[in-house]
Specification:
This protein has helices at about 5-25, 80-90, and strands spanning about 45-50, 60-65, 70-75, 100, 110. By secondary structure, the protein is an alpha+beta fold. It has a five-stranded antiparallel β-sheet with strand order 3-2-1-5-4, covered by helices on one side. It is elongated.
């Protein structure tokens, strides 16, 4: 096989791989489906907020309830935005409040209730 043919074959493989990776970019998000309603706040054990990254271009809100079930909320809903604002709003009292943790990569915040 001539060297020119090898170069063209290598170039074709590189183009195919890059196209495949480009189409899978959105598939690296945690939330493939989201809920459009909020269940009782008293049943929520943990809330994790993942900011948009190069791997997933959207904000994701992952909720864990007291029984350990995890589900995603739609961050564009007004009700979800109000709840997130109340969770993340600093309190002036000395009572326990949600804590916000940053992961080592800086892409996730956790608010514990």
């Amino acid at each position: 096989m001539s060297s020119i043919m090898k170069v063209f074959l290598l170039l074709a493989v590189v183009v195919c791989i890059s196209e495949a990776q480009h189409h899978e970019r959105g598939q690296q998000c945690l939330c493939q489906r989201v809920r459009n309603k909020i269940n009782l706040m008293s049943g929520i054990k943990d809330v994790q907020i993942y900011q948009a990254t190069i791997f997933c271009g959207k904000v994701e809100i992952v909720v864990t309830n007291n029984s350990g079930l995890r589900y995603c909320l739609n961050p564009n809903l007004k009700a979800v935005q109000k709840v997130m604002a109340s969770i993340l709003k600093p309190k002036t009292s000395t009572t326990a409040r949600p804590t916000v943790h940053s992961s080592s990569t800086g892409s996730a915040n956790t608010a514990r209730m």
